[in-house]
Amino acid sequence: MNENQTEVVREFVLAGFSQTPAIEAALFVLFLFFYVTTWVCNVLIMLTVASDNCLNSSPMYFLLGNLSFLDLCYSTVTTPKLLADFLENEKRIMYDQCIVQLFFLHFVGAAEMFLLTVMAYDRYVAICRPLHYTTVMSRRLCCFLVAASWMGGFVHSIVQTILTIHLPFCGPNQVDNFFCDVPPVIKLACVDTFVIELLMVSNSGLLSTSSFVVLISSYATILVKIRSKEGRQKALSTCASHLMVVTLFFGPCIFIYARPFSTFSVDKLVSVLYNVVTPMLNPLIYTLRNKNVKSAMQKLWDRSGLTRKKQET
């Protein structure tokens, strides 16, 4: 088939979760709750960090604000389309829209991986070199590292997208997931994709696995370098939230991308975890364990005047 693939397959059909209206309605309510909670929590963190001078001047919270923005973007790539499909009988997505969704999924996802690595380095400097922390983690360096994270995500996504759009698609056109991603999409190509699969697994799988190893090694180094039991417990408490976020994000990504593109029955559930649930849990994990963030949120709440208005009524 030598025709351009956009002339052969103009749209894909997403498998979704269920064809039963009652189940789809219940899932719509559940995922809408997840998405609204994601927006409320992440926007609250960004506003809190931006409005509090102490937090905004701290590299850790500056990076945390950027992580919240990435979580918002990451969730928005797939969840609105998922919610709309719960209300439709046929879950269709145009070819061009599918490629755009695939591009931004890997763009934002890879950028978040790099940013979490930067945050691990930030914790290493803060705990192991506290006297030089503000000098090493300057605002200029933080901005550079955030920009580098976005650039790294862009390069990674461009590679994934170019490898995908050069494949011919002539049917079938049913994507075995609720969004467009590389593994289920390239299985629909009309040619042998073995080499492409190896390239993509080595790209996405190597990126997620190597980043995860670097992160775990960084936190292990922190604990090893701290000799005192009290200092080690304090460091573990500080890094616990980061480790939880890292595990929730990287675990599913490694499961999906660091293996050959075979289909498992749990793939959709794993995809839900890192696409929908993790962006919602990240801000909750950080705020529930961080006294400074909760204190700043209380100040923001007091400055908003809502507390005073409530008392007056």
TrEMBL record:
Domain G-protein coupled receptors family 1 profile: 41-286
GO molecular function: G protein-coupled receptor activity; olfactory receptor activity
GO cellular component: plasma membrane
Keyword field contains Cell membrane: yes
Pfam families for the chain: 7tm_4
TM annotation in the entry: 25-49, 99-121, 141-159, 205-224, 236-257, 269-288
Domain of life of the organism encoding this protein: Eukaryota
Subcellular location: Cell membrane; Membrane
Topology of the protein relative to the lipid bilayer: Multi-pass membrane protein
Annotated source species: Trichechus manatus latirostris
Name assigned to this protein: Olfactory receptor
Gene: LOC101341716
Main location: membrane
Family statement drawn from the similarity comment of this UniProt entry: Belongs to the G-protein coupled receptor 1 family.
Keyword terms: Cell membrane, G-protein coupled receptor, Membrane, Olfaction, Receptor, Sensory transduction, Transducer, Transmembrane, Transmembrane helix
